Amino acid sequence: MKRLLTAFLFFAALLAAWQIVFVAKVWSPVLVPSPASVVRYLWSVLRDGTLEGSLLVTMKRLLLGYVIGIAAGVPLGMITAQFRAVRDTLGVLALGLQGLPSVCWVPLALLWFGQSEGAMLFVVVMGTLWSVILATESGVRNVNPIYVRAARTMGSRRLHTWVMVIMPASLPFIVSGMKQGWAFAWRSLMAAEIFVTILTGFGLGQLLHYGRELNAMDQVIGIMVVIVFIGLLADKVLFSPWESFLHRRWGTAK
Amino acid sequence: MTLQQELAVSPSAKLAVKNVSKTFDTRGGRVQALDRVSLNVNEGEFVCLVGPSGCGKSTLLNIIAGLETPDEGTVQADGLPIRGPGRDRMVMFQEPALFPWLDVFSNVMFGLKLKPGLADAERKEVAQYYLKLVGLEKFQHANLHELSGGMKQRVTLARAMAPNPRVLLMDEPFAALDALTREQLYGDLQRIWQERRKTIIFVTHNVREAACLGDRVALFSPHPGRIREEFRIPLPRPRDINSVDLAEHATEIMRALKGHLSKSEAQE
Which fold has domain B3-98+167-267? Predict the structure, then answer.
C-alpha cells in the first residue's frame, strides 16, 4: 500500500511539473503541449477506434515475430550451449548480430521485401532471435553441473538428461531470455513501423511517425505514453510473476 | 515384484581399488590428487575417508562413482571393472543435488523411474517406504524451498537409497548442516545402514564424524593424495558422537593426521 502511494505521488509530481512547464510557457506549446491535450488526443483516438485498430495491428505483428524468434531461438540456444563447434560459429554470429541495433536491419529488409509485412516481420525476428539464442545458451550453461552428475549416477543419459534435467533446470534463465526477447521484439517493431510505411495496416509506430509529419505533439507524446504503458504491462503481468515464482522455487532468488 | 521382495534383495558389493593415481592440470600447475591409492571395502562395510581438503578423497569417491576415470590403476566392484556411473553405486554430494522443479516425492521417484523391472505402483510403494525411513512421509508433496537443509539431505538420502544400490558413496553430505541437525542425521544414517545393510564409503574432513560412523577410517594426506593409515573403530552401534570412547578414537586419528601433515610440510 505504501509502495503504491509512493509510486502514485511520484507520477503525480511528474505530471504537475509538466503542467507547470506548460503554464509557464518555457517552450512553445507546439513543442510542449499540455497534459490535458495529450489526454484529449488519447480519448479521441480511443473513441473513434484508431487506437484499438493500430494496437491490434501492432500486437499481431509483435506476437508473430516474437513466437518465431522464441521457437527458433530456444532450440538454437540449447544446441549452441551443447556443442563447442556451434558455440564457436553460431554463438559468435549471434553475439555479433545481437549487438546490431535492430533499426539497422530496416534498410536491408526494405530492399529485400519492399514496403511489406514481410519486411516488418523480418526486422522483428532479427531483433529477437539473437538475444534469445544467447540468453538460452547462457541459461543452459549456468545449470549447476551437480544436477547432471546426480542424474547420471541414477542412470540418466543423453536425451533423458536433456529433457528431464537440463531443460527444467535452465527454465528460470529461459524465461529471462524470453523476457529479454520480448523487449527486443518490441523495440524492433517500433523501429520498423516508424520506417516502413505500408498500407496493410497502421501500427502504433506509424501513428507516431504521422504525429511527427503533422507536427502534432499531443499525438507523438500520447502514442509514446501508450508504448511505455504496454511495455510496463507486459513486464508486470506476463513476465515478473513467472520469474519470481521460478526463482523462488529454483532457489535462485537474490 | 512386491515391496517385500524388492527390499529382500539386499545387494552388497566388494570394492577393490588398486594402485589408483590421478593428476589434474590446474592454473597453479599439475596436482597429483591421488598417488597409488589402494583400498578394499567389504560387503556391508562402512568406511570413512578422512583427511584435510585437497587430499584427493573426493576424487577417489568420484572415481568409484564412475564420474571420473583414474590415470592409472583399477577399480573393481565385485571383480568387474567400473565403467562409468551406475545405479549400483549411488552418490550423495555435499550440496543436496535435488531437483527444485520436482517435489519431494518426485525427486525420490527420479532414480526409481529409471530402474527397469518395476511396475509403477511398486515404484511408488518403494519411494514411500524410503521417505518413511528418513522420516519425511508427511512432506511428500512439499517443494524443496520449503525444506530445511537437514530435511533436504534426508530427501537426498532417500533418493539415493530408493533404487537399492549396492554401494552408497557420500561426499561430505552433512558438512553444510548445523551441529544439532548433523547429530540427528548420524543417528538416522547408522539406523538406516543397519536396517538396509549397504556398503557405504563416506568422505569427510571431520575426524570425529569419521570415528562415529565408520567401521574403518582411512586417513588421507595431501600432496600427493595417499592413504597413510587405517583405523578400526570397534565400538558398538548406534554410536553417540559425544561419547568418551569415541573421543579417544578420534584423538588417536587426529594425532596421526597431524603427524602426517607436519611430515609432508617438512618435505616441501
Answer: Rossmann fold (3.40.50)
